[in-house]
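tool=predict chain=A
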Amino acid sequence: MPRNRWAGALGVLAGVLLLVQAVAVLFDDPSGTQIVLETVCALLGCALLVQSVDGLRVFNRNAKRR
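tool=predict ok
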């Protein structure tokens, strides 16, 4: 879970950038090794995106309770 809203927003941005970069490389006729590395980057981007969005959701839920 991110420490604050800004860290969560930066995590979302980083996750999206990792996904975009991986997709861009995969459309550029990569070699076998590049396919594996970009797939790992895409999975890390998805994990970072999900974790950050979930953390921001928790922050918003806590803010409504106060």
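The chain is about 85% helix and 0% strand. The longest helix spans residues 32-65.
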